[in-house]
Design a protein that fits this description.
This protein is of the alpha/beta class. It is built from 11 helices and 12 strands. The strands form 3 sheets. It has a 5-stranded parallel beta sheet with strand order 2-1-3-4-5, sandwiched between helices.
Length: about 325
């Protein structure tokens, strides 16, 4: 499969001939290319599909490329999408203006088709790498996590244990204290996970951030108890510091339900589901996820912080 397969490029340029040249150039190497002549038509396309990269001409009617770039950077659908500005001038001020507007790169007309393809591929590759890491914690995300679990499962004679960590009552905390405070809690969990895996785990153990308040650690069965016990101890001894003095005195938080009635929630706790091939063979990474979902459901049914192991032999 080509690395360009199914990747979508949006070209915003009112010069139909230029759009055709770019389209021919990029479609030859496997990209799917869409053309838009102005901001309005570009947004219509973006509503239908989020492009993987945008090529944006500087000189456009009604609204120039710098203004469009700023708008794209402030839109949640395109804020993360690489933007390459296209300019007919090799003037430094145009390049600087494009970068200041939020562009990732620029290319000057007339351009070498090989250079265009190379720049597009470079920024798509970089964007893919950035997606692989959670921006809040800096930990590997789902793409890397999946590959890591696959590798551990495929080594048949190697024992592994996968720890799935999830916070209890985190949504209620976010509702009361806001997302910024919630982010601080997430970073705190990432810190104690990293600290304890380094201290009590193996040199090649892996930690990742699935997203939200879900984390993962891959270690060996003999390290599970020490890692989990210490994570829970440090989490429980510190988490109350993230609450106000009033809530700490009260021992819980109060928020509203859908009918505007007061609902009380206990302080956050942490549930850890442990899946391993210590007692049974696990065929693939999908099976790891299935067992983890069962164990996590059981762990979250218990009050307070807890870790539970899957001890079944089949």
């Amino acid at each position: 499969m080509q690395e360009t397969a199914q990747q979508r490029i949006l070209v915003i340029d009112d010069d139909k001939f230029m759009v055709r040249i770019i389209k021919d150039c990029l479609e030859k190497v496997g990209f799917i290319v869409y053309g838009a002549e102005d901001f309005s038509s570009a947004m219509e396309l973006i509503y239908q599909m989020t492009p993987d990269l945008i090529l944006l001409d500087v000189v456009l009617p009604k609204m120039n490329g710098f203004e469009i770039c700023r708008l794209l950077r402030n839109d949640t659908r395109t804020s993360h999408v690489p933007i390459i500005m296209i300019t007919s001038k090799a003037m430094t001020e145009d390049k600087v203006a494009g970068l200041e507007a939020g562009a990732d790169d620029y290319i000057t007309k007339p351009f070498d088709p090989l250079e265009l393809v190379a720049r597009v591929k470079t920024h798509l590759r970089r964007a893919k790498q950035e997606k692989a890491f959670n921006p809040l914690t800096g930990l590997p995300g789902n793409i890397v996590i999946e590959e890591e679990i696959k590798q551990r499962v495929e080594v048949s004679n190697r024992k592994f244990a996968v720890l799935y960590l999830d916070l209890d009552n985190f949504k209620a905390y976010n509702d009361v204290y806001g997302f910024l405070k919630g982010d601080e809690v997430i970073k705190f969990v990432a810190h104690i996970l990293d600290k304890n895996v380094k201290e009590f785990g193996n040199p090649d153990d892996f930690i990742g951030h699935i997203g939200g308040d879900d984390f993962i650690c891959i270690t060996t069965p003999d390290k599970v108890d020490d890692i989990c016990t210490n994570i829970i101890e440090q989490f429980d001894s510190t988490i109350q510091l993230f609450y106000s003095s009033e809530d700490r005195r009260r021992g819980h938080i109060i928020t509203k339900d859908r009918t505007n009635q007061d609902v009380t929630y206990p302080f956050m706790s942490i549930s850890i589901a442990v899946v391993s091939n210590e007692n049974r063979q696990i065929e693939n990474h999908w099976r790891v996820a299935e067992i983890a979902a069962e164990m996590k459901k059981y762990a979250k049914s218990k009050p307070g912080s807890i870790y539970v192991k899957d001890r079944r032999s089949r």
